[in-house]
Write a structure and sequence with these properties.
Blueprint: E1 8-19, H1 20-27, E2 35-41, E3 47-53, E4 58-66, E5 69-78, H2 81-93, E6 97-103, E7 108-114, E8 117-125, E9 128-134, H3 139-171, H4 175-196
Antiparallel strand pairs: 1-5, 1-6, 2-3, 3-4, 4-5, 6-7, 7-8, 8-9
Helix pairs in contact: 3-4
Amino acid sequence: MVMAQRLAMEYVNATMQMTEFQLEQLLHTEGTRHISHRVKVLGAGEQELVLEEAGGEEVHLTFERKGGVYIGSLSCRVENPHLMNAVRKLFFTYKGTGTVNRIYKDITMMYYYEGGSVRRISEVRPEGTKLIYQHKYSLAEMHSIYKRQTVESEIRLIRQEINRLLDIRNRVRQEAVVCEVDEQLAAAAFRLFQLEA
């Protein structure tokens, strides 16, 4: 069986995240025999890394500082095999997020990545799109989702309890009961604040 030859790779709204140290390391690495790079400083202090293949094809990767990290943005089509490999390595090393289309003669394989991990793979042909793979939750992700749902359930119950206490407070006139309801309302409001924070 002959493997289909990849014609191009396309990065759609792809991003990579790195620290200042990682960015400095990347910007000061030496080029390879096939790929050279240069850095441009843009108007708003952003930096642009330009990867260039000996034949002239270029990829532009813009880095913008957000908080303590740099976010690299990439949307391009790459056809040179050496440049494809260089961009692919960058995308995986810095845990890219976005869509990567691997384009072959009669088919496009569409990969959606999140934090460097494949979340979905689709096969795109002229006659339609077929889902090949969909990420299932890991045990840690399922635990996190369960915990979030538990918190949301507790928030819903506390809101119901607050409404019930407010109804009681509006009906009663005895000061002792009002004070007790106010204490319960304060405790419920504090717990609600903790859960929503």
